[in-house]
Design goal:
Blueprint lengths: L8 E3 L2 E6 L3 E4 L4 E2 L6 H12 L10 E8 L5 H13 L4 E9 L5 H8 L6 H10 L7 E7 L2 E7 L2 H7 L4 E6 L13 H9 L1 E9 L4 H10 L2 E6 L6 E6 L7
Parallel strand pairs: 5-6, 5-9, 6-8, 9-10
Antiparallel strand pairs: 1-2, 2-3, 3-4, 7-8, 10-12, 11-12
């Protein structure tokens, strides 16, 4: 963890702390919101590459990404940035995230300001973000990009959705800090809402997470993690024979 120049921000999420270098830290879960090395590059290595993106969305039609843990919106902004660079005419991206404790617009902007590469996306997100985030936040980021953030318990929200997902970013706080975000029940719900041939990726490599994903029905692969982390996980929902 970084040193102690922490400034608390009160809100529905309990206490949001700011460590050195404007690094957001959740007091509720005892963990940072993103990789201390470089969260934006981690997003590319883990979530985009782990789901074979952008190549899979370089077609016409709708591509839907599900995310467990919106946090600062970093994954959404970096994905949007790469989507704008590679999308084809007729393509639509729907990024759907499930978040228990949504940040304020000012906190989102502060947390994302360390990356000039996503300044345009950060400013747009902060401008469109509701003053009192809660419920279901639905934002048209541009003519071909939609962001939906479902606020509340992840298991109830994912179980209750009627959406189908082409790819998942599993990005809750570390399994040791927030085991409910990696439970067998939630992994089953993620699997149930994934299209056949759909994928997931996560920085997490804990044994119980891998076992829960396999038990849910995913074919799971270990890959090299980001920034010295030994492993990460990614996988696919098998296509039924004859389907």
């Amino acid at each position: 963890m970084t040193g102690s120049t922490s400034t608390p921000t009160a809100g529905d999420s309990g206490t949001l702390l700011w460590h050195e270098g404007d690094m957001p830290y959740s007091a509720a879960f005892g963990d940072h919101f993103y990789c201390q090395t470089d969260g934006r590059l981690e997003c590319g290595h883990v979530f985009l590459s782990g789901n074979a993106l952008p190549s899979r969305w370089e077609t016409d039609g709708l591509f839907r990404i599900g995310e467990l843990g919106f946090g600062t919106g970093l994954n959404a902004c970096e994905t949007w940035r790469q989507w704008k660079l590679t999308r084809r005419p007729g393509g639509v991206l729907h990024f759907v995230s499930f978040e228990l404790y949504p940040m304020s617009a000012s906190d989102l902007s502060r947390a994302l300001s360390r990356w000039p590469e996503i300044d345009a996306e950060r400013e747009a997100l902060a401008a469109l973000w509701p003053s009192e985030p809660g419920g279901t936040i639905d934002i048209a980021l541009d003519e071909a990009t939609r962001l939906t953030v479902v606020c509340g318990d992840a298991l109830a929200s994912v179980t209750g959705t009627d959406l189908a997902f082409d790819a998942w970013y599993l990005d809750g706080f570390a399994p040791s800090r927030n085991s409910a975000m990696w439970s067998a029940e939630l992994m089953n719900a993620v699997f149930a809402t994934t299209v056949e041939g759909g994928t997931f990726a996560t920085y997490a490599a804990a044994g119980f997470v891998r076992r829960n994903l396999i038990a849910a029905g995913f074919e799971v692969e270990r890959r090299k993690g980001f920034a010295g982390k030994r492993e990460m996980l990614c996988g696919v929902k098998p296509v039924r024979s004859g389907a």
